[in-house]
Amino acid sequence: MALNLATLALLTLLIGTAGGGAWLIRRQRGGWRVVGIILVLEALILLAAQYLLSTFPIGIGEPLIRVPFIALLAQTLGILLAIGAVVALLLLIGRRIRYLIDQQLRRRWLIGGMLLLLPILAGASMVVMWKTSIPLRERERDPSKRDISLSEGFEWSIYAQGTIDNPTAIAFGPDGRLYIADIAGDLWVGTDTNSDFSIDTITRWAGGFDLLVGVVWHQDELFAASSGKIEALRDSDNDGVADQRRTVVDGLPSLILRPHSNNGLAIGPDGRLYFGVGSTTDGLTESEPLAASILSVNPDGSDLKVYARGIGNSFDVAFNQAGALFGGDNGPSRDPNSSEDPPDEFNFYAEDQHYGYPYFYGDPPKNGGTRSALVSFPAHSVPTGVTFYAGDTYPPDYRDSAFITLWQRGEIAHIEVGSTPSGDYLARSTTFGSGFLYPIDVITGPDGNLYVADFGTSAIYRITYGGAR
To answer: Which among 137, 228, 303, 395 could disulfide-bond with 254, CB atoms 3.0 to 4.6 Å apart, if both were Cys?
Structure first.
């Protein structure tokens, strides 16, 4: 709140200064007109600097979508009275300074001081705002210097870093290389040329996506989920760049409520694509028939249908070895029926079932007609990527258990999942890793290790097991 007020105050000062300078240009002559021109130029330059400060990704802050400057500028319209007061104050100060100049003949010192005051004041304000806008956990951006803790016996290393602009999703291809989606809308491919478990080269494989948040390989095509659609890409001539691209699904509800869209992809045992689509409202009744749900579609784009409903925003889904579907769910910012914020969830998604949104969260009342969560996370944990461990390099009790990234907590949760005689599931969650910046995706690699994409550090971590210490 304080940061928003400081931003608006600075914008008000700059707009008021530009207005005062324009008045001097219009109403005064000689040296005062020059002063007005300089004030207008200073205000415009500082407004440009404020634009960069509000849009350049200095702080991660808002998830996935950066705040446009126009949104901040629009807020200043609500304080037009304050702008008018600043302009009036500047005019009064200008008249007083002019009187002093006329009376004391200190023109150069006073004009120079007045022209220097604005950039010094605004520059100092921007530095303070820049520092305070970066949360404590975001201030270390070097992935090698993060204080990451893992469960006993596990170790981490950096598998890839650099080039990519904040990864959003990762998938290993049939060629053994890592394909990386980023927030800028590009798809990259990373190659470990000398087999030292570290990416040596990262090249651009495809681009032109908007909010690219899901990738999965199926047969010889890479399916990519971006805002409102799913596409399938392939590199038919093996030159390292995708040259064929087809639309599988289009027109999905997207960014009606930011940043909710269609999300991460999974291939089911039936060969169909499964993915979540976020709600279009923040905890209100849903009017879009394809939103707040899990959808399923054939790889050729036919037979799009709703698989499960009542899901606020499932960022990713994954199948276990038995072919059951699971995923996280992000609750709304508030629960109108409670004084507490609703929890985030990890769910077993069964076909034609309802999972409570926007009516119930966590454990619903009996006979409420909705399914309860397997695991309830603290509010605003923001579960994102999920995978079921399918390797053989970790201890046996990790096999076919789930790992899910918790974006806002900087953690990876390990979820033990067990089936019941009735065909339902129970689960228990523990913290597997902490100290990440903004972990957004986790997958099992072909070498049997976990790979974690960290949005905040633009790095991919590799997690191995070295035995009990």
So the answer is: 228
Whether the CB-CB separation of 415 and 404 falls below 8 Å is answered with yes
What six digits make up the tokens of 358?
Answer: 């926007």
255: Cβ–Cβ under 8 A, 6 or more apart, which residues?
A: 65, 211, 227, 228, 261
Same domain, 128 and 152: no
Residues 6 or more apart whose Cβ sits within 8 Å of residue 364: 356, 370, 371, 372
3-state SS class at 80: helix
Retrieve residue 131's tokens. 């520092």
| Backbone phi and psi for residue 323, each to the nearest 5 degrees, phi listed first | 90, 15
Q: Count how many domains the chain has.
A: 2
Count other Cβ atoms within 10 Å, centred on residue 432: 21
The pTM assigned to this predicted structure is 0.76
Distance CA 103, CA 81 (A): 33
CB atoms within 10 A of CB 442: 27
* 3-state class (DSSP) for residue 247: strand
Task: Give the phi and the psi of residue 276 in degrees, each rounded to 5.
Answer: -95, 150
Which of 134, 169, 187 terminates a domain? The answer is 134
Task: Decide if 140 contacts 64 (C-beta within 8 A).
Answer: no
DSSP structure class, residue 453: E
Distance from the Cα of residue 130 to its chain's centroid: 19
Residues 141/443, Cβ–Cβ less than 8 Å: no
Tokens of 291: 């939103």
Asked if 129 and 174 sit in the same domain, the reply is no
Is residue 10 within a helix (H) or strand (E), and if so which, with residue range? helix 2-27
CB 58 within 8 A of CB 133: yes
Dihedral of CA atoms 169, 159, 377, 402 in degrees, nearest 10, equals 80
By C-alpha distance, which of 373, 265, 262, 391 is closest to 319? 265
The string of pLDDT tens digits covering residues 380-433 is 899 999 999 999 999 999 999 999 999 999 999 999 999 888 888 999 999 999
Beta-strand (E) ranges in 20-173?
A: 149-150, 154-161, 167-172
Nearest of 282, 273, 236, 271 to residue 252 by alpha carbon: 273
Q: What's the token pair of residue 191?
A: 């190659």
**Domain limits for position 72:** 2-134
Phi, psi (degrees; rounded to nearest 5) at 449: -115, 160
Residues 127 and 191 in one domain: no
Task: Read off φ and ψ for residue 111, nearest 5 degrees.
Answer: -65, -45
pLDDT confidence band for 369 (50 / 70 / 90): confident
